[in-house]
Amino acid sequence: MSLQELWLLLPVLIICVGVLTLMLQAAWQRNNVLAQGLTVLTLTLALGALIRQYPTDMRTITLLFEHEPIGGFFSLLLLMVAISVALLQGPYMGKNSKEVAEEFYILLLLSCLGSILLVMSRHVASVILSIELMSLSMLAMLAYNRERKLALEGAMKYLLLSGAATSLLLLGFALLYATSGQLLLTQMLSSPMQLVAKSGFVLVVAGLAFKLSLVPLHFWTPDVYQGAPVNSTLLLTSLSKAAVFALFIKLILLIPPEFEADMVRMLSWMAIASMLLGNWLALQQRSLKRLMAYSAIAHMGYVLVAGVIAMGIDHSLVLEGASYYLLAYLVASILIFAVLTLLSKLDEQQDLDDLPQLQGLFWQHPWLASVMTLAFLSLAGMPITIGFIGKFYLLTLAVKLSAWWLVTAMLVGSAVGLYYYLRVIFTLFAPLQRDIQQTSGAYLSKMWIGVITAGLLLLGILPGLLGDELRRILAIG
Amino acid sequence: MTVPIEHGFVLVALLWAIGLIGLLARKNTLFMLMSMEIMLNAAALAFILAGSLWQQADGQIIYILIITVAAAEVGLGLALLIRLRAHVSDLNIDKLDELRG
Amino acid sequence: MEQALVELWPILLYFAFTLVLLGGVMLVSTILGPRTRGHSTHLPYESGILPLGNARVKFANHFFLYAIFFVIFDLETLFLFAWAISFEQVGVTGFIEALVFILILLIALVYLWRIGALNIRKRHLPEQN
User: Mind listing the UniProt keywords for this protein, alphabetically (chain A) (predicted)?
Assistant: First the structure.
């Protein structure tokens, strides 16, 4: 490992140092505010380091990692999510929580580290380690409130099922390794594929589809989302989805041409099923977290459409579309969960989650309700929000490829989605029923929410602002 | 005389199936954790076999990584199990059915 | 099969020899050995400490923590072992990397020690029946 490679790894190294510092801090002097400050500082430094040496072309860092524009863009998204969670955890936890505060930040940094490494991986070993680092530390955060039985239940289910999914993923990689004799992802998939190798690849896709909660492997999502503390749910719905998707798209772009037709068929069905089933099941939900879980399934279906199209036509345009859509999804998720976080407390048995509990939020906390409304409109793909542009990108691409099944499923899904998103919005504006408490103070977190909301609107009104920039950031076209 | 490599992969498939059946059929959460562990180890064994097929040490390295990951996973699982004991008196997975919608 | 027998015959011989030896010793001692019938003959440990209570004592789950720490730290030595094997090849860089690895482990250990995960408090001792 040369010094130059170390220099390229700087954002990762900063996070590592942050983790160790926080551990020492927790060992000597427990302090809620200090831990939060250190975390935000670490993440900001990492963000700065990443922007400072933003990759313009692909460079390998030892055998295990690579530094390339698309991964860089995803890392930016991941750091943004991690900063949001770190800022929200303070108000969510309050000053005198029964749970310890520092460990949450340690786990947050660890899962952020895992996700960034996952995006950078180019070797089976680094994929395994980073994907597990990410999901195991996330698992501990899902059960962070030890008094909540539901959180423990959700975490236990997630642990058992994700263990099974991981074994699928590993088995798939083992089969690919057995047939090709290579462990680098690019070389592993470039050799001609026999039946064994093909089934291995399908197993890998299944393992990743579990983490993305695509339809045949989506069943864990609502339970885990509902059980977990709302801030950890935010992390699960954004961080792990974005990072795994980065790997997913990297893998399916490597498929050899003779296997492409089969994969396109399989992934198309998965995407269509996710979009329809996710939106359909979300219709009947009263719990907002379950609703977001089904909505996440549907949105992952939309993003998968981009992946399917990517195999059909030239990659660059599709990567742009997928990145934009994912950005829109992450921004909206962050905002919705941020509002819920500000209205809930970690120490209570339940988060504010039931839809009737939110009734009339606008009349009491107009700002929070407006932010939430905008976020839901963006998820529904309404104009002047970033979600509209994201959907527009994908639809144009799908039409260009004349993938009419996908287009139909997207349109039907969006129409159904619009219905239940509007239902939530109407609830927010209904007459006030009972008092809703929000966390007072926490100005920093609220300012951050404001910044993200502004971004949502700005990019929705002026898509060109990022559209051209995005092409440069991703170093394509 | 060496054992043919196909036998090894049959063993992998059998181990994995045993783990899966255990995960699906068992009611005790502790045994479900064990079954999950068997599944992970089946995959790890597959890496060793693949490594020996190509006469490389890489398969064994990956094996070490996998058992490290599995140890962390089981540590977390047991910790969750102990917390669950405080809420539910036994380890029956069917007691965990409050999340539905 | 033929070849396997050729390769394995020392082990088979060893097994057979052990069986014969064990059987022979037991047989000879039953025939020749003196028989006494004292009051402590049938205790499990004739000359040790007398067993007390039930073997199925409930242990507090704090001991599980030790087991897990052991498993985790034990696995980490595996990585050091891999480093030790390739010590010549990896050179100074490998040495520095191993040092960093050990440093991280050390910080984890310090963390565990300071938050009191290594203490056995009174209430964690096994319950007395």
Answer: Cell membrane, Membrane, NAD, Oxidoreductase, Quinone, Translocase, Transmembrane, Transmembrane helix, Transport, Ubiquinone
